Amino acid sequence: MISVLLAEDHETVREGLRHLVNAQNDMHVVGEADNGKSVVQQASALDPNVVVLDLSMPEMDGIAAARSLRASSPSAAVVALTRHRDDAYVQQLFSAGALAYVLKQSPSIELLKAIRSAATGTPYLDPALQSREPRREPAQVHGITARETSVLRMAAVGHSNKQIASALGISVKTVEVHKSNAMQKLRLASRTDIVKYAALQGWLDDL
User: Within the chain, how many helices (H) and strands (E) appear?
Assistant: First the structure.
C-alpha cells in the first residue's frame, strides 16, 4: 500500500485528490497540507512513500518545499502537480529533488501513474511534456563510454550490480568501476540522481 501525503492549498482540489487516491486499492492518503512549511513538517512525522506537491503554495513554494523534503524526508518520493508547462519548472523541480512531474490539466490517470512510478523510485514525466523536455547534449556527457552508458542505463531501471555483470558478461567489480566512473563524470551522487539523469536522456521512455 502506497502512503500518500497531499500538499495543495485549494481545499476543493485537495478534496478531489483525496477521493481519487483513496479510491485506488494500492494507495491511501495519510495526511494533507495547505502550505509548504506544513507539508515538510508532516512528511517528517508521517513518513509517507509519496508526497504530491503543488508548486504554488503559501509560506513556502513547491520548489523550496521539494528541496526541504529531500533533506528532511529523503525516503519520500516527490510528485510535482502543477499547471506550469515551462521547461524551466521541470528542470527546477527535478533538480530540487522531485521524481515525477504531472500537469493538473492532464487526465487523473497520469497522476496515479506518477504516484505508482515514484513509489518504486522511477521518474515520471507527464506525456504532454515529454516532447518538450530538454535533453543533455553529447558534449555535456564529459566522455562517458559506451560501456559506462550501458551500465548506467541498466542501473537506472533497477538492475543490481550482479544482474548487470551477468547481462554484460563482466565481473561485479568491473560494473562497480564503470558505474563509479560514469557517476563521477556526470556528477551524479546517488541512484536517484542516476534515474533522474536517465529520465532527462529519454532512456526510460519505453518502459
Answer: 10, 6
- Whether the model pTM is above 0.70: no
Render pLDDT for 39-50 as a digit per residue (tens, 0 to 9): 999 999 999 999
Maximum alpha-carbon separation in the chain: 55
pLDDT band at 130 (very low <50, low <70, confident <90, very high): low
From the candidate CATH numbers 3.20.20.140, 3.90.1700.10, 3.40.50.1000, 3.40.50.2300, the one assigned to the domain spanning 2-130: 3.40.50.2300
How far is the C-alpha of 172 from the C-alpha of 150, rounded, in Å?
14
| Closest C-alpha to 99, from 68, 120, 128, 129 | 120
Residues 156-180: pLDDT tens digits?
877 888 888 888 888 999 999 999 9
β-pairing verdict for 100-103 and 124-125: parallel
User: Which pLDDT belongs to residue 142?
Assistant: 52
In this structure, the strands spanning 77-82 and 100-103 are parallel
Q: Which residues pair with 3 in a beta bridge?
A: 28
Class of domain 138-201 (CATH, top level): mainly alpha
- What are the sequence ranges of the domains in the chain? 2-130, 138-201
